[in-house]
Every structure is written in C-alpha cells, then in structure tokens.
Amino acid sequence: GCYTTSVIAGVSERTLIAVKPDGVQRRLVGQIVQRFEQRGFKLVGMKLLQAREDILSQHYHDLHKKPFYPNLLRYMSSGPVVAMVWEGHNVVRTSRLMVGNTNPAEAYPGTIRGDYSVHISRNVIHASDSVEGAQREIQLWFDRRELVDWDCCDHSSSYQV
Ligand code: IDP
Ligand code: MG
C-alpha cells in the first residue's frame, strides 16, 4: 500500500540533480530521468530554466578562484538546464555513483558521464556532493512550493516497510 515516506527513517534524503545545457541540447533529459526512476528514486521537483548568473555564482561559489570558473559560468548559462530534486534512501551518495567521476575520462562506463560525455568541460550533469550541500542547492534552485510531497504507491517494492 501507500506509505508516507517522511515517517520512514532515512528515506526522505533529497538531492539536486541538474541536466546541464549540453545534456539538454543533446536531448539526454529523458534517458537521465529514466535512470533515476528505474533506480527507485522519487521525483519531487523538476523545471526547465535558463539559469540566472546570481544562482550560478552561488551554486559554484567554492570554485570561483579556479581558472576554469569563467568558462564554467559561460557553459552553464549557454542554454536551458533541467533542475530536479530526487528523494530516497542515500540518494546523495548513490546519485554521485550513478553520475560518475567529474572528469569523463575517469568515469566508468555505466555511469551517466561515462556513457554520455568525453570532456570535463561538457560533462552533462550536476549532482550534489553532500547532504548539507544538497539542502543548500535545493533552496537555491527551488521555491518550497515547487517541491511536491507525494506517496509513491510501489514504495514497498524499493524499500522494506
Ligand atoms: P562535480 O560536478 O563532479 O561535483 P566539481 O569539482 O564540483 O565537480 O566541479 C563542478 C563543475 O566544474 C564540473 O562538473 C565541471 O563542469 C567543471 N569543472 C571542474 N573541474 C574542471 C576542470 O578542471 N576544467 C574544466 N571544468 C571543470
Ligand atoms: Mg560539485
């Protein structure tokens, strides 16, 4: 039957996933969404948007001194991105494994970057790297009212309840 996920310990972790402009241009959005659905995670927010510069500079604030930072911001604002919030047990760590190494040359086949990209400056997807980072990024990219609390009716197929 249906269960309220928030009452089940550890299940309500959330992460921010974004298909970057190259991924949107290459029409990879559907396949990327499919991977997270099939893994067993629950989509609780999703939108296509042209990212504003102030959001991008806050999102990548820890990289602002890196030599590639200007190119990174130009890349991320070169077209629309699809921002998503996914929920589930260990979703932050598991989605990093699904996404693969930052450098596609080091990303294993079977990961999103390992299957769809070749160069670090066009690596298709963003995933939060910690639970605290995810909370900060979700607040940055989404208004609370854009996130939907809903019960996944096959919840017990992915979780012991
Ligand atoms: P992550 O996306 O795997 O978390 P971060 O180190 O947080 O990797 O870097 C954020 C993004 O900045 C990367 O996904 C990539 O787009 C870009 N980036 C990181 N390192 C380099 C680099 O050495 N050259 C060019 N772009 C880079
Ligand atoms: Mg990062």
Automatic annotation (TrEMBL):
Its main location: other. The keyword Nucleotide-binding applies. It catalyses: a 2'-deoxyribonucleoside 5'-diphosphate + ATP = a 2'-deoxyribonucleoside 5'-triphosphate + ADP. GO terms for molecular function: kinase activity. It is an enzyme of class 2 (transferase). It comes from the Eukaryota. This is Nucleoside diphosphate kinase. It comes from Huso huso (Beluga). The chain holds residues 46 to 206 of 206 of the full protein.
